[in-house]
Design a protein that fits this description.
The structure is a single chain. The protein is an alpha+beta fold and 144 residues long. The longest helix has 12 residues. The protein is 36% helix and 12% strand. The protein has 7 helices and 4 strands. Helix 4 packs across helix 5.
Length: 144
């Protein structure tokens, strides 16, 4: 483990969560790796939420610990495995993911001056994106 790297197994104290929040760090959850490695210790989501730590979700597509390529399946797994709300999961793959990557001033939200990366889904509410496993309700994709 790299110096300063935090994992679910070594983040357990309120001081750690406070330090994460104070540093402006985004907690990045990897539900595919959690599933593939048969992890059992849940991330400290209640403590992260209470401290106001942004939570991102990622696929972590790699041959060693996660073969997950579907962002929608990561959303589903974030909701089912980690008990994120659909709104938290959607923010986790958009705004908070962009923040974690250091590109929130360019992408991640729809705002004047940002690059437009818009996915139009055939869904009435965010929960539908997490509900249908294997479905792809994408109807349009715009990049500008």
């Amino acid at each position: 483990m790299a110096r300063g790297q935090l994992t679910t197994s070594n983040i357990c104290l309120n001081e750690d969560i406070h330090a994460i929040a104070s540093a402006g760090t985004v907690a990045v959850l990897l539900p595919g790796a959690f599933y593939f490695l048969r992890e059992t210790k849940q991330p400290p989501l209640d403590a992260l939420r209470a401290a106001g730590v942004p939570i991102a979700l990622a696929t972590d597509l790699n041959p060693g610990s996660s073969q997950l390529a579907s962002l929608l399946l990561a959303v589903n797994m974030g909701c089912t495995l980690f008990r994120l709300t659909p709104e938290e999961a959607l923010a986790g793959v958009t705004r908070n993911a962009a923040t974690a990557l250091g590109v929130a001033d360019e992408i991640g939200t729809l705002e004047v001056g940002k690059r437009a990366e818009l996915a139009v889904w055939d869904a009435a509410e965010p929960a539908e994106l997490a509900y249908h496993i294997g479905a792809n309700p994408l109807t349009e994709r715009w990049l500008a």
